[in-house]
Each structure stands twice: as structure tokens, then as C-alpha cells.
Amino acid sequence: MSDNQDRWGIPGTYVFDLRLSRRGYAINKMCHSLRLAENRDLYLADEEAYMARFGLDDEQKQAVRERDWLRLTQLGGNLFFFLKLGATLGHGLYPIGAQMRGESYEDFMKTRNVPGAT
Amino acid sequence: MAKIVAGIGSSHVPSIGRAYDQQKQTDPAWQPLFDGYEPVKRWLAEEVKADVVILVYNDHGTEFFLDRYPSFALGVADSYRVADEGYGRRPLPDFPGAPEFSEHLANSLVADEFDLTLCQEMDLDHGFLTAMPLLWSHDDDSWPVQVVPLLVNVIQHPMPSGRRCYKLGQALRRAIESFPEDLRVAVVGTGGLSHQLNGERFGFINEDWDRQWLQDIRQQPEVLADLSHKEVMTAAGAEGGEVIMWLVMRGALSPQVREVHQFYYAPMTTGIGLLALEDDAG
Ligand SMILES: [Fe+2]
Questions:
Q1: Within a domain: residue A19?
Q2: Tally of structural domains, chain A
Q3: What digits encode the pLDDT tens for the residues A63-88?
Q4: Which of A10, A59, B25, B260 yields a CA-CA distance of 20 to 30 A from B277?
Q5: From start to end of chain B, where are the E strands?
Q6: Is the pTM of this model over 0.95?
Q7: CA of B201: which chain A residue's CA is closest?
């Protein structure tokens, strides 16, 4: 999924432009709905039904099932939206980020100036 | 006549809000941050005494969705609620608006060719919330200032250029100064500094760039206004691209400004910057 990097030329980065936004619209719409507590409950009760309701395609559903945040990003998921999915599932920003870097959480934290400030 | 009495640049980071709510002011990892804001909080309370705060921010997938995303949006409501970002609402009081002032700003800015989306309801997420309690004391149900939220699209490209943000700030100054009442107005630009939260480059920060930004925004904002999004995102991280919101604040100040205070701290994944400026009367 390098067409975004072909457009923007920033390695390791998926610039959220309109093309990526259109690709990920269903993911982001689903995640946006999770700002409401009652929807978080519905999601946790039946993830498959919830994903189907928002029309995620098979690749997107699989990335959600695997909690593969990098793949979700490549498929158009925007971090600010899918942090609401993370909040629903109990996955915080830093573990999500470590996974996108391909590192363990512990190794990622060793790269920080003040790892206590979480 | 209304006048601008302070210009503040401040990062907005969810973990700061969490630390504030969990009262980590003396936690060794967080104390430098809270101590760093304290002189500005004191200056605002004792000398600036603003009546209204215009705070430039972006929403983070909370209140605004991609179905119809505004490039610029201005709050014109009587009050604004604290949003739920997925964890429940933060225990902060809702914010009193300044509807007549907002209406004047809307009329003036649109006449001045900034065609803003006008919002009569607008829940506020960490983009707005982070800086407020670090800069103004509140009690359980009230704030000492009224607010006008001004949203900029820094989420989805194409987003406004830095130059456009700077010009919006200049138009904002004309709008403020044409309001007939004697209001004392603080303008706060939020966001940045360097950070990246997506992709394999997650966690990228650039402390040298951040420190240079804190200097240049005061001394040569025109140079910063001409940077492209790609230049900013390459040097400051993809999400660091939101620093252009500081240019709205800077555009609203006089060409020469005086620095009241500066603070920088980069503990985790964001270069957290604070800059307090005022018009240089001389
Ligand atoms: Fe932001």
C-alpha cells in the first residue's frame, strides 16, 4: 500500500488525504459512532453484526478482527477515529503505536524521553 | 472597542487531560508540564484578565464527521458541552459562549471573505479542552472566561494552507477590533508541536524543529506561513501538520510581539510547546 507514499513521499506515513479518507469511510464512520456509550455496548455485544451494519469490506473486517492497526491505517482508517474503537476494546494509543512500529510495547517505551508520562 | 490582550500557542494532547483529571500535578513525569504552564496561568489571571477566549483547535473524530467536513467552523452558541471521546466526559464544567461577540465575528469574517461554517451546537474534545484548565482556573461548574471555538480542518487533506491560516488571523484581528464593546480578548492557537501518530513512523518527534518553531512564530511568522504541508509533515510528523493553527493566533497579533513566556517538554510522543505573546506597543 505505497500509493499514498507515492503521492506524499513521506516514509512510514499514511497522509490522510481525500483518497485515503474515501477508502476508509466505512471504518471511520463505524468508529465515529463509538463516541456514544450505548453504541460501545452494542459493538462489544456483537462485533460482526456491528461491522456488517457499517458496511466494512472483507479486508477491513479482517484488520479489525486482528486488531491490526497498521493494516487498518493502510485501508483508510484514521487514528483519531479508530482510537474510539481502541477505547471500546481497551487498546490505548501507545500499544497501538508500538504495534504500528513493529515493536513490543516495552521496546517502544525505551525510546521515549520520559516513559512515566502516559 | 474590543482588543487583543494575549496570544497563546499551546499543544493539545489527551494524556495531559488525563494527568490533570487524575491530579498528577506533582507526579515526577508530569510536574514539569504543570509547572511550565503556571507562570502563564498566573499572568493571565493577574495581568491579562481576559473576558473572552477565542480558541483555535481541531476536532479529533468526535463532533465533526467526514460526511461533511468544514475547512473552518466558528462556534456561535450560548454554551458548549464537553464531548465524550470514547472514555466518558471529562469532569470539566461546560463552557459559556459569547454569542453576540461570535455573531459579530461571523458577520465580519464572512464579509472579509472567510466563509466559515457557523455552529449553534458544538461539543468540544481534547483539541479544545487540553489547554483550558492549564491556562484558566475553574471550579466545579464555572469558568472565569467566555469562549469562542474556532475549528480548522487539519485532519483531512486538502486542508487550509499555513498562509490561509495566517490571513484568517489577520481578519480575526479586524473583526475583534471592530466590536464596539470593551472586551478583553485572548486568542489561543493550539496543536503540535512535532508528533506522528500513524504508520511505521509513529512516535516521531523533532525537538530541534519545535524549538525553532517557538522562536520563528514570534520573529518571522511569514516564513512559517509559506511552508507547505509536506515540508511541515516531513519535519514535524504527519500529525504535527496541525501547527498551522498557531498561525491563526499569530496573524491576529501585531507584526512585532513581545514574548512573555516560553516552555517546551517532550516526554512521550508529542513535543509539547507553550508560548505566551502580547502585542508590542513600542
Ligand atoms: Fe489535534
A1: yes
A2: 1
A3: 999 999 999 999 999 999 999 999 99
A4: B25
A5: 3-10, 52-57, 72-75, 79-80, 95-96, 117-119, 146-152, 184-190, 257-265, 272-279
A6: yes
A7: A12
